[in-house]
Design goal:
Length: 168
């Protein structure tokens, strides 16, 4: 579909299923233009001169990942762009988790389905925690220079905890 110009994006699946949204190359270019004009406005302009830390995956058909890729492209120094993981977000996994969550709400999920989703969630959580822990010292080593850092609150709190451990 990408070859035909359809850059599909998927929603999070929090409603119990993922929705797919069509996006075109023109849409992507418009988003890039908006990012270039708004992130850092009014004083900063993207100049591909910053170390970039995106505390999410580098690949996947999701608008947050697309936004992270755009930010990294516009602001990042070549060789100085860091994502939490290169493990792609897979919509098949998001959909499966959403479906089980919905069955849990309906009371129709089996004990095995619940155990499987809990196990997969714990495994993924452990991988992402390990990836963040590996990245924390790199983030902190760049604290005295202009950087771009994007993540969720829990990740920012982990950075603060690590900084305190190091006496920063």
């Amino acid at each position: 579909m990408r070859d035909a110009g359809h850059l599909l994006l998927a929603t999070s699946g929090s409603s119990g299923k993922c929705s797919f949204l069509n996006s075109t190359r023109g849409d992507l270019e418009l988003k890039k233009r908006h990012w270039q004009e708004t992130l850092g406005w009014p004083h900063l302009r993207p100049n591909k001169d910053r170390t970039v830390f995106q505390l999410g995956p580098s690949r996947g058909p999701n608008s947050a990942i697309e936004a992270a890729q755009i930010g990294a492209e516009l602001w990042g120094k070549p060789g100085s762009i860091h994502f939490l993981t290169d493990e792609p977000l897979k919509i098949s996994e998001v959909s499966a988790m959403a479906a089980v969550r919905k069955r849990m709400q309906d009371g129709t999920a089996t004990p095995q389905e619940i155990a499987d989703i809990e196990r997969r969630g714990a495994e993924q959580g452990a991988r992402m925690t390990a990836a963040l822990n590996q990245l924390l010292d790199t983030i902190l080593s760049h604290r005295d220079e202009p950087i771009i850092l994007t993540g969720m609150w829990a990740q920012h709190m982990a950075i603060i905890r690590r900084a305190r451990e190091l006496g920063i």
